């Protein structure tokens, strides 16, 4: 990665364990392509109730912006069912699975473009 990974927490306390998990997931993405430029991950927890006492049961929203040469891949996980991502680990897993699929698709397109360019040269 050309730029260090950026991890932001909004609406919840910073967690070293969560940050480490995100860094592991980003490292896995790097195994698919060494061309990654940058990655920014935002972990949010929106609170319907303004009281800080009512955080339990609120869903996590994960946004991943992955810059690759000439493009940017984005995953924004805003669950429609608020119970789907009450577990931060599940929210992170699902978001990174989606990003992995996007990255694999992008890599496939790059390889196809390279083959097409090579044949016409």
Automatic annotation (TrEMBL):
<dbReference type="InterPro" id="IPR003489">
    <property type="entry name" value="RHF/RaiA"/>
</dbReference>
<dbReference type="Pfam" id="PF02482">
    <property type="entry name" value="Ribosomal_S30AE"/>
</dbReference>
<dbReference type="InterPro" id="IPR036567">
    <property type="entry name" value="RHF-like"/>
</dbReference>
<protein>
    <submittedName>
        <fullName>Ribosome-associated protein Y (PSrp-1)</fullName>
    </submittedName>
</protein>
């Amino acid at each position: 990665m050309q730029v260090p990974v950026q991890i932001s927490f909004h609406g919840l306390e910073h967690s070293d364990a969560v940050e480490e998990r995100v860094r592991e997931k980003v490292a896995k993405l790097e195994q698919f392509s060494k061309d990654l430029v940058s990655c920014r991950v935002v972990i949010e927890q929106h609170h319907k109730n303004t009281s800080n006492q009512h955080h339990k049961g609120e869903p996590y929203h994960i946004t991943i912006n992955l810059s690759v040469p000439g493009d940017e891949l984005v995953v924004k996980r805003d669950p429609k069912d608020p119970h789907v991502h009450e577990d931060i680990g599940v929210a992170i897993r699902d978001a990174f699975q989606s990003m992995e699929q996007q990255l694999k698709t992008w890599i496939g397109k790059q390889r196809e473009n390279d083959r097409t360019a090579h044949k016409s040269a």
